[in-house]
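Field reference: sequence -> structure
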Amino acid sequence: MRQRTIVLVLCLTLLLALPCAQAEEKEIAFDLSNNLVYVHDAFYALKSGRDGEMQVLTARVDDSAPRLYCELPSRPQNIPWEDVYEDYPEDIKQQLQKTVSSLFDWGGSLHAINYYTGRIGTVDEGGVHWTEQKINNSLYFENGNLRIYSPGFGYEGQFIVKHMDYDDTAEMETIHLLISDLKSGQTRYLQLMNTADAVPYLPGKLLLQRFVSQSGKTVWQLAELDLSTGDVNPLPMAMPEVLLNGATNPYGAIGYDRDLDRYYYATPNKLLMSNQGGEFTLTALLPFDMMMPGHGAGLVMPNSAYAVFFGGKLAIRQSGQAVELSNSLTIRAQYINPDTMEMFRKQLPGTALFVEEGYITAADAGQMIRNGDTETDLFVLQLDPGLRAMMEKGYAAPLDKEQLIAGINAMYPAVKEALKNKAGQYCGYPVSFGLHTSFYVREHWQKYMGEEAYPTTYLQLFDAMLRFNQKVASEDPEAYFLFDTQEDMMLHRVIYSYIRQYETDDTALDFGAPVLKDTLDLMKQAFEVQRAAGQGPQEFVGETSGDIRNAPSLVHFGMGGGNFLNVPDTFGAHNDYMPPLTFMEKEPSYEAGQMRVMLINPNSNKQELAQQLMETFLQPEADYKTWYALRPHANEPYPNPNYAQAVQQNKEDLAAYTEALEKARESGTANAETLRVYQYRIDLANQALRDQDRLRYLVQQEGLDIFRVIAPSVRYFERSRLLDKGPAQEQLDMLMSRYLGGGLQLDGFLQALTETAQLLYQEGR
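Structure field:
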């Protein structure tokens, strides 16, 4: 069953005529925290910074933002996770034994625990004060290493923490419990079945979120756990169906209000309640992008309030009244950026926007439409042959709003053609664009290949690679010809390039061309030399391919996954763009672009409203990279509204990492990896401050000029029979796996590809 994470975004004030108490809502951001405690009308969050710094933040309900409550001992960097804890360097162990693993409430006071020592401490504005009191933490370790990392909670004089496990059958994260008596220190392990979360409930009991089989389906269930006996008793309320096979289940933050006898659970943007064990109803709206069982916390507050904490965001809501929704749109998409959702809210402030977020193909959407689906108003799908088929079959409503049509008319010809149905009408609007280009590192190429010209064909590339490997390949080479590229990746690149170069509508593709055989033969030789020397593929290190921790490499395929319009972090090196390689010299070459398209369900009775939502994408703010990438006449740099803050942050980073590097060198104990990390961050800050266009603009002129040279060659191959992102492509991939595994020789492999192409061509006719 595919993932379906329900996300709701709504402007309440214009949408709902709710009682005054229902409209009261509050959101507080506790960034970089997954541990929140509510004590004496105040929230306390454990914050862990990027470089090990730790703090406690606090806020009250009326606060708009948290403030610093206290500083805590920092967490060491570069922990040798591959070693057992006892073998850690002594200085790292000493640091770990001072850190706070979790905050918790004990007797109405804020406390802390260290999982490495089991020691308990109190927390106030002065920091953590470790006491002699401790729990037996031997069960926190397994095979010499700590196995507990989740935050725990205090309950009836006990500290309870979840031991995360994994159910391979259900492909789902599960939990067991470690329960420690805070007075005696005794700890016991309570094994649970099919359980995803556990929270405080009635005296001597916890409330569990479990998954159980019911009427042939797997569904969520709330149950009570007796802590003294371990007995589990299910509760009667109906819960949603479980999404299996590794899908993210958007249900969590369970809780129980004893005073009101009210149960709660949350989806990303719905808070549901059950009074006295009755049916769950929607009682409030939430602002989250996702929700996961066992990772979202629900906090019961006074006066019918309930707080949901997930991913560093706290949402406080009044409960008790049922919420009725009338004006709404439902979108099915694999993912929609939270910033885009904010734009949607502004575009349609009186409309509830539901996004069912999860993997969905054009085939899935087409089947839903054929089955008469009227609940979904819009789909966001990858532009591929399946989407083309949807448009041609009338499964996407034509657009008729002038602004949308004018917006598409301003785009590149390849984009416009991809969005038309048989009648020439536009049937979708682009919402995201991606491109992974390739490049040569000029300095590295010149060092190892001299003045030799860059390859323009695959034959030339593998000839150069063979000669390079014959000279340089070894178990620990000083340089690599290909950056982070294995043989199977290269084979896929060659075969897919061949298809894009030569596939046509009017005949089956023949893979028997001598140039393809010669190319694959030479590729095999180049990799065999590499293997014979004991050399594996280069492993990516750091945050960018330009990181100084990466050994030099000459050819970088498929890079630019971030902001393809900007200049990469090269630290003075030159990345020369590589046009897509061809098989014969002077052939035209095409970049393979990726695009997601929003289209309207022709069964929807809200098509006018759906097109109003689409108009969000007429503005660059919705997704500035896509907006610039698709419009050939958008050639002005796009300013960064946070430029001043970016400059200040880089100055602070430069000072902090320069000081850290000096101290690390002086200590004489810092390992080489630590020194490299600090130097990389110094280089990054220096580069940004030296070339401040990197900070001043989100789209820089230099990067934009480079992209404008590339953009006319971008194609989407949305009519390909072989690269269908489905069964045909799976057959090709299977043949490539057999070839690489020795199950097919080269001639047999090429013949099998040709036969597959012929069969698919006949089926297509």
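Note: The radius of gyration is 29 Å.
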